[in-house]
Write a structure and sequence with these properties.
Elements: E1 3-6, E2 13-15, H1 20-32, E3 36-40, H2 46-57, E4 61-64, E5 68-71, E6 84-85, H3 90-100, E7 106-110, H4 121-129, E8 133-136, E9 145-148, E10 154-159, H5 165-173, E11 181-186, H6 191-203, E12 209-211, E13 215-218, E14 228-230, H7 235-248, E15 251-255, H8 268-275, E16 278-282, E17 285-289, E18 297-299, H9 307-315, E19 320-324, H10 336-346, E20 350-354, E21 357-361, E22 369-371, H11 376-386, E23 393-396, H12 408-414, E24 418-421
Parallel strand pairs: 2-15, 3-14, 6-7, 10-11, 18-19, 22-23
Antiparallel strand pairs: 1-23, 1-24, 3-5, 4-5, 7-9, 8-9, 11-13, 12-13, 15-17, 16-17, 19-21, 20-21
Helix pairs in contact: 1-2, 1-3, 1-6, 2-3, 3-5, 5-6, 7-9, 7-11, 9-10, 9-11
């Protein structure tokens, strides 16, 4: 699908969809729990439905009506009868690799082309050290993967420099292993997402000890209980509307956002404020008002998913903006540093690519034919850029937005965006 975008002015109230990160964690914990769980206001997207499909493969019974109801397996995942396909969902792959290590038999994981290019070696090594058997079929640490449990516990080291999801997988699944697990962590990135996982453990009253993000001790033989929990609105998705308001000088009210939530991408609020955007709390959400933007320097090490939207915003700021400390952005659905450099350059942007980020110097952009490369966040970021450009911007592979944000175009149109499928 191609998306056609023209210069627009935005206004109105935008109901922000639910958090993907929370929804997938809810599905995983509900599937492992003893009893029934109810997930209210879930994000319904390709990624979260991948999590549902995979957890059903482990024996969980999941109904996906308006409220998702999950009947868990009481810590004893069944051995899947076929290959588990995670689609495009890296979160599903990594978090359920630990679930596979609890099952008494072999599980095989695969996914789409992007998933089969993503690394999993450090998590495979950690699961092996805990008594599971975990291998990459190609011998390169990438899917397809085969994992056999049950893991017993023990000592594991994990290099978490590529993604926080390796550690989150261990934190979610090791409490259900037979024995005690001691985890030593190196180079922990995306720490707010680790805190999100720990917040779920705390709500479940799971026992663990920790020293910062470097060391965890988790007793085995614990149990998750069924729960009822609403999913909060997603700051990662809201970022595209915030940045759209910022670069078009518009005002939007984003409904459902809660600054006390553990999502790391709420950092977008302070980043945009530093650039000159007015953002304030209003009943039920946040009001965002754009205007003249100034360049800044931003560490995205904890919030790599913000890179595409922030790269676009920086194009419309006075001066040169540094986006740094985010080498793991090269290991997402695409190499987002390289892709955003190449695609924004087609629109006239001045971008210097760095090993761990980029420098973007603000200047007027123009409409162009660009390619989202099948990466949902790249697609949405390029569409946002088109809202502030003269001429028409044509974004290829725009269907990828549905991976996390199926009604992105609909909500943009509702706010006044001149945006349509072509």
């Amino acid at each position: 699908m191609k998306l056609l975008v023209e210069k627009s002015s935005l206004s109105g109230i935008v109901p922000v969809p639910a958090s993907k990160s929370h929804t997938i964690r809810a599905v995983v914990i509900g599937s492992l729990a003893d009893g029934e769980s109810a997930i209210t206001n879930p994000l319904v997207s390709a990624d979260t439905l991948s999590a549902v499909r995979v957890c059903r493969g482990f024996g969980a019974e999941i109904e996906t009506e308006d409220e998702w109801v999950v009947e868990g397996v009481c810590g004893k995942p069944a051995v899947p009868t076929g290959v588990l396909d995670v689609g495009n969902s890296g979160t599903t792959l990594y978090l359920t690799m630990g679930m596979a290590a609890l099952a008494d038999g072999w599980t095989t994981f695969t996914g789409d082309d992007q998933i089969r290019s993503r690394p999993a070696g450090p998590l495979l090594e950690a699961l092996n050290s805990l008594g599971a058997e975990a291998v990459s079929e190609g011998g390169d640490g990438r899917p397809p993967l085969r994992i056999k449990g049950p893991m017993r516990g023990g000592k594991a080291e994990i290099d978490s420099s590529q993604t926080s999801q390796y550690l989150s997988s261990l934190l979610l699944n090791c409490p259900l292993a037979e024995g005690e697990t001691e985890i030593t962590v190196h180079n922990a990135v995306e720490r707010p997402y680790i805190e999100m996982t720990l917040g779920w453990l705390d709500e479940q009253q799971i026992n663990y000890e920790r020293r910062g993000f470097e060391w965890f001790l988790i007793p085995g033989g614990q149990v998750y209980d069924g729960f009822m929990k609403p999913m909060p609105a997603d700051f990662s998705s809201a970022a595209f509307f915030m940045c759209a308001a910022a670069i078009t000088g518009s005002e939007l009210i984003l409904e459902g956002l809660e600054m006390h939530d553990s999502q790391g991408d709420k950092a977008i609020v302070e980043m945009l404020r530093q650039m000159g955007c007015a953002i304030e709390d209003v009943p039920g959400g946040l009001a965002v008002r754009g205007g003249e933007l100034a360049a800044g320097a931003f560490d995205l090490g904890s919030t790599p998913d913000l890179l595409p939207a922030m790269a676009v915003t920086a194009c419309f700021a006075q001066g040169s903006t540094l986006l740094m400390n985010v080498p793991q952005a090269r290991l997402k659905e695409t190499d987002r540093i390289r892709v955003m450099h190449e695609e924004l350059a087609k629109m006239g942007a001045e971008v210097e690519e760095l090993p761990d980020g980029m420098i973007v110097t603000g200047k007027p952009l123009h409409g162009a034919r660009v390619d989202g490369r099948g990466d949902h966040r790249v697609v949405m970021a390029l569409a946002v850029a088109g809202l502030a450009c003269d001429g028409v911007t044509e974004v290829a592979t725009a269907e990828a937005a549905g991976i996390t944000f199926p009604n992105f175009v609909e909500l943009m149109q509702g706010a006044g965006a001149r945006m349509s499928a072509g």
